[in-house]
């Protein structure tokens, strides 16, 4: 049975024997009024939750970023920004609805963690209920087994 990442079961997630979701914020307790930036999960916790099937990872970077900086598998790809001017993708929620439903736990991944905050706020306003980000984005997740970088050389 998948772990549900809502506030009512936050302690169950934290205490799940296969998941380490320790917050980077000391003495942090999530409540429904938790500031949005504190909903970030560590890269390790994100990876474990995706690996367990408890959340869907959505890579919101541009195709160019994935090609240049590497990508994460498994992940769905729904760019938050589009075009050479990097404007907000007008089809973001249409594309997102094709890969997740509004009650499903979603972990958004961007390059550094900043863009995922904007996308998370918009997703929450659009009715998605369990939206999280990867603390530090791809830059912080490069060491994990899910990360693939065809440009990386040993």
From TrEMBL:
<dbReference type="InterPro" id="IPR036873">
    <property type="entry name" value="Rhodanese-like_dom_sf"/>
</dbReference>
<dbReference type="InterPro" id="IPR052367">
    <property type="entry name" value="Thiosulfate_ST/Rhodanese-like"/>
</dbReference>
<dbReference type="Pfam" id="PF00581">
    <property type="entry name" value="Rhodanese"/>
</dbReference>
<protein>
    <submittedName>
        <fullName>Molybdopterin biosynthesis protein MoeB</fullName>
    </submittedName>
</protein>
<feature type="domain" description="Rhodanese">
    <location>
        <begin position="51"/>
        <end position="149"/>
    </location>
</feature>
<dbReference type="InterPro" id="IPR001763">
    <property type="entry name" value="Rhodanese-like_dom"/>
</dbReference>
